[in-house]
Amino acid sequence: MLEQVLKEAEEKMKKSLAALQREYQSLRAGKANPSFLDKVTVNYYDSLMPLNQVATISSPEARLLTITPWDASLLKDIEKAILKANLGVTPQSDGRVIRVAFPPLTEERRRELVKLAKKYAEEFRVEMRNHRRLANDEIKELKENGKTTEDERDWALERVQKLLEKYATQIDETLSKKELQIMEV
User: Fold this and answer.
1) Given a cut of 90, is residue 88 above it in pLDDT?
2) Helices 107-144/150-183 angle, 10° precision
3) Cα pseudo-dihedral 159, 164, 170, 175, rounded to 10
4) Pairing mode, if any, of strands 41-44 and 55-61?
């Protein structure tokens, strides 16, 4: 029983860390990355589809993304979807390919991005603490129901705390890497 609670807590923490890393991929750090457009959805035959499922996205240069729709009739819809996503970029079409150019980041914008990265990190630290709290509640409930001993409960609570510390450290490392990436000129 306790092992299952610990396993579930670690799985949730792993998923939270992966979610933070996905959030960081969408934070533009001066270099064009196709994952920057992951949140863009396009209306394709009356259903919303992720952009990467209706077009090829590539980065031929450090500050440029090219989007080649599989269906040429989607050009205008893709342009509208990028503008609607409010990503701070303007798509330009030549009738076959859409280009999204990324201007160099200003020092002020870099600081804003670092603040945003720190905000994301704190949100995920809170999420990790919530996972710990839920696991601790389950462990205490097992003790109250007589399904485990006090020593086992204390051991499990300690393990959950160590899991939290492990993943909090990983969040901090991920944040540090992102800050360096954002601030490098």
Assistant:
1) no
2) 170
3) -170
4) unpaired
